[in-house]
From TrEMBL:
InterPro entries (UniProt xref): Cation/H_exchanger_CPA1 (IPR018422), Cation/H_exchanger_TM (IPR006153), cNMP-bd_CS (IPR018488), cNMP-bd_dom (IPR000595), cNMP-bd_dom_sf (IPR018490), RmlC-like_jellyroll (IPR014710)
Domain Cyclic nucleotide-binding: 709-823
Originating organism: Gemmobacter aquatilis
Broad class of where this protein is predominantly found: membrane
Gene Ontology CC entries for this record: plasma membrane
The protein, known as: Sodium/proton antiporter, CPA1 family
GO biological process: regulation of intracellular pH; sodium ion import across plasma membrane
PROSITE patterns on file: CNMP_BINDING_1, CNMP_BINDING_3
Length: 843
């Protein structure tokens, strides 16, 4: 027993030494890290087979045990795969992935089905296996391996959107492929009832849905426990380690759901919700720990899977080469159907952003298979219920196909991406980089010349080094002069990109100093990323569109509004509004700091004229942010005050912490006192992390009191109106009243602005105005169309309640008359006035 432990530790140590050596070797040979690991693992596997076959019984028992490590498919599926999948889900930029969710899902789910059908159908005429066994092989080879794909794409300077699509596909298609693998495996196992078509339509969706639900619930419970352990960061990290393994075993072995789907959903849930629940330092440490675990898991999974290659290929025949070629051609055909058939169709139907041709070629060639495919093939060869001929052929064909993708595609993927120009600087960026280098070197020469004055250095050495540096500077200036013909329009675009890049840095700095919470920082970084891409595509106009989009509530705002208006479920809207408060307050501060960057850096590169334009663009954006803050302050005055107090307190804590660090550095306080002071600040900061609750119901009563038209209501009327009136939130461009519709409601504008189109004329209404009363008073269909031109909050009252209030309240009658007269509608109201309306309305 003791010797077994020693052998296990020895094997583990040797594997980690191999992992350590493989990284510099890969760098030296300019090969992907995963390919070097696969070569090393396969070489070790071949060496073990050769040693055992040649030396046989002469080997010691301990050495024989070491050469025949008991590697089983369960090791990959239960130990390494949850770690790898969970970390990828934890590290994805989910908010940016939402922009490309259609192509990601298409490549992750539909592509698995298409590849299974293509490979199985193409292989069936030539294979000794039955059709269903061919489909089983198709499911095995349809999954792209996250450890192979992610490591290669993250190691290349690929465009972010391409990396997002490929990483999302490699993560999500594992779940679909493994679920399909389990379905077809039951057909080829002897003594197991074959599932019916009904089982497929009910069983597969329920398995995936069960995994989704299990992953979400476990992640939420884990987050709740981690919040309760806020004072123990190491306990929080330890709990996060248990999440993927616990959720995998619970879903796969207890509930009969998809364990991989559960792990993916758990990781994505933690990724989405965790930054807003955990302290910034804890969240940063958690991601770093998981990156290290995933690095080890990815390396071990490649080495150990490659050790299996000789075992899986030991019964290969010459004719199997043809079958492997059939699998390769069918798999490529399936991906081409998706990339050149389905994705363009989705783009034409406006369901997906366009995926450019170079991206599609890179995705086609980047569909690497690896340890997941080998693990599934190994699971088939270990299953005693599967016929021996199926075991042999599945193992050989899956392994042969994996070897092709690793050694043919993996070794050339970087070259393909470079040939497609996806890593090459655009001519404009190249010209800019030359100018930036020239400016930077000029600054370096000035600072070095000033610094050497204070050092007793040899004048001859100083002159010699200055001459060498001067030659380098002259070359940089000459290269920069070649690009001086850059148009002003392009310089503005480049200046805006530099501005957005510095905004990204300021958000990160504010997060590190705990001025912004983790969740809001990630959302702001996502908005900046969209701003950069919009600027690259559309220049100045693209920057403006991206800036306007960042002021919106997001794609889930309408859902939250519907839940609030229809079902009275206010929490989602409350959380989104509170998040918006926090983001806008920090964004206002960051935008103010960007002006100094324009004057300090961008002006020296692009000139005074471009700098002035950038100041103007930034001023417009600042004004829009200020208007958005003011709109929220008008809607929620009490909450706005609390958020501003919270903002000031966090700022004060940050400055106080910096002062204590300075005192320690200057030797004015000791280490013990410094630790005590920092701990007191940590407690105050934890209390500030509890954001004040935004109660929309309370805010409605506040808004009612601020409406001039409702100022004369007594306490009883106010309570009645508060019960009957509903709050409506509208986005820019949303039609609130449509011409020709029956008049059933009147609206009071609490914040924002709307545009009224009546009789060919346009008129804008602002806070405190009411509209919609004319149709009710005349009892005619709507004669005007009202559209929101900003984010608006409105109070909506139904027809009968409005008429009841109108009869009993002089203030409201006067407000209706003034509003109608001010907009030139008095005559229309009088002509259509029914006989039972109050005389005050007729004017």
């Amino acid at each position: 027993m003791e010797m077994d432990i020693v052998l296990f530790v020895t094997a583990a140590a040797l594997l980690f030494i191999l992992i350590a050596i493989a990284e510099p070797v890969a760098e030296r040979l300019r090969l992907p890290y995963s390919v070097v690991l696969a070569v090393a693992g396969a070489a070790l596997g071949v060496a073990a087979v050769v040693v055992r076959s040649t030396m046989g019984d002469s080997l010691s028992e301990d050495l024989q045990t070491l050469l025949s490590l008991p590697i089983r498919s369960a090791v990959f599926l239960h130990v390494f795969l949850p770690t790898l999948v969970f970390q990828v889900a934890l590290g994805l930029d989910l908010r940016r992935m939402l922009d490309d969710w259609v192509p990601i899902l298409a490549m992750a789910v539909a592509a698995v089905l298409v590849a299974t059908l293509f490979v199985g159908g193409a292989l069936a005429p030539f294979s000794e296996m039955g059709l269903l066994a061919c489909f089983l092989l198709g499911a095995i080879v349809s999954t792209t391996d996250p450890s192979a794909v992610v490591s290669i794409f993250r190691g290349l300077a690929t465009p972010q959107r391409l990396a997002r699509i490929v990483e999302g596909e490699s993560l999500l298609n594992d779940a679909a492929a493994i679920a399909l693998f389990g379905f077809f495996l039951t057909f080829v196992m002897a003594g197991v009832p074959n599932p019916t078509l009904q089982d497929a339509f009910i069983g597969l969706p329920s398995t995936i849905a069960g995994g989704v639900l299990t992953g979400w619930i476990v992640a939420r419970l884990a987050l709740l426990a981690m919040v309760m352990l806020a004072a123990f960061p190491l306990a929080q990290l330890s709990l996060s380690i248990a999440v993927p393994y616990g959720v995998y075993l619970l879903a796969d072995h207890v509930l009969g759901a998809s364990g991989v789907v559960a792990v993916v959903v758990a990781g994505m849930t933690l990724n989405w919700v965790g930054p807003g629940k955990l302290a910034p330092a804890t969240w940063t440490n958690l991601r770093e720990v998981w990156e290290l675990l995933a690095h080890w898991a990815g390396a071990l999974i490649f080495v150990l899977a490659s050790l299996l290659i000789p075992r899986l290929m030991q019964n290969a025949r010459l004719s199997d080469i043809f079958l492997v070629a059939v699998v390769i051609v069918a798999a490529f055909a399936a991906r081409m159907v998706m990339l050149w058939g389905v994705l363009p169709l989705l783009s034409a139907l406006k369901l997906s952003p366009r995926v450019e041709r170079p991206y599609r070629i890179a995705i086609l060639w980047g569909g690497l298979r690896g340890a997941v495919t080998l693990a599934l093939a190994l699971a088939v060869t270990e299953n005693y219920r599967v016929p021996l001929d199926v075991q042999r052929e599945v193992g050989i064909l899956a392994t042969g196909f994996t070897l092709f993708t690793l050694f043919a595609q993996g070794t050339t993927l970087g070259w393909v991406i470079r040939r497609l120009g996806l890593t090459r600087l655009a001519p404009l960026d190249l010209a800019l980089s030359r100018q930036v280098i020239a400016v930077a070197l000029q600054n370096v020469r000035e600072e070095v010349a000033e610094a050497v004055k204070d050092h007793a250095l040899s004048h001859d050495i100083v002159r010699a080094e200055a001459k060498v540096f001067g030659q380098r500077l002259d070359q940089a200036v000459a290269l920069a002069d070649e690009g001086k013909g850059i148009r002003e329009k392009d310089r503005i675009t480049l200046g805006l990109l530099a501005l957005a890049g510095h905004e990204h840095d300021l958000v990160l700095e504010a997060f590190r100093e705990q001025q912004i919470s983790s969740g809001r920082a990630e959302q702001m970084l996502t908005d900046v990323g969209r701003l950069v891409e919009a600027t690259r595509l559309g220049g100045r106009h693209g920057y403006r569109r991206g800036a306007i989009r960042s002021l919106g509530y997001g794609r889930f705002y309408r859902v939250a509004v519907t839940l609030h208006n229809r079902l009275r479920l206010s929490r989602p809207l409350s959380v989104m509004t509170a998040n918006r408060f926090e983001i806008l307050l920090n964004q206002r501060l960051i935008l103010a700091d960007l002006h100094a960057h324009i004057d300090g850096k961008i002006r020296r590169i692009h000139g005074r004229r471009v700098a002035e334009i950038l100041h103007q663009v930034l001023a417009v954006r600042e004004n829009e942010v200020e208007q958005a803050v003011e709109g929220l302050r008008l809607q929620y005055p009490g909450y706005a005050e609390e958020m501003q107090r919270r903002f000031i307190r966090r700022l004060a804590l940050r400055i106080e912490e910096r002062e204590y660090d300075t005192l320690l550095a200057d030797g004015l306080i000791g280490k013990e006192l410094h630790v005590t002071l920092r701990q007191s600040l940590a407690g105050a900061r934890r209390r500030l992390e509890q954001r004040p609750k935004l109660d929309l119901a309370v805010q409605k009563s506040e808004m009612l009191r601020q409406m001039p038209a409702l100022a004369g209501l007594d306490a009883g009327q106010l309570r009645m109106v508060q019960r009957r009136i509903s709050t409506v939130y509208a986005q820019p461009g949303e039609v609130l009243i449509r011409k020709g519709d029956p008049a059933r409601h009147v609206f009071f504008l609490a914040s924002g602005a709307v545009e009224v189109e009546f009789a060919g004329q346009l008129q804008r209404l602002g806070r405190g105005e009411l509209f919609g009363q004319l149709g009710i008073l005349t009892r005619r269909p709507r004669r005007a169309q009202v559209t929101a031109i900003t984010h608006c909050t409105l109070l909506r009252l139904d027809e009968q309640r409005f008429l009841d209030l109108l009869q009993g309240n002089e203030t409201l009658r006067r407000a209706v008359e003034e509003s109608t007269a001010r907009r030139g509608l008095m005559e229309a109201a009088a002509k259509g006035k029914p006989s039972d309306q109050p005389a005050a309305v007729s004017g």
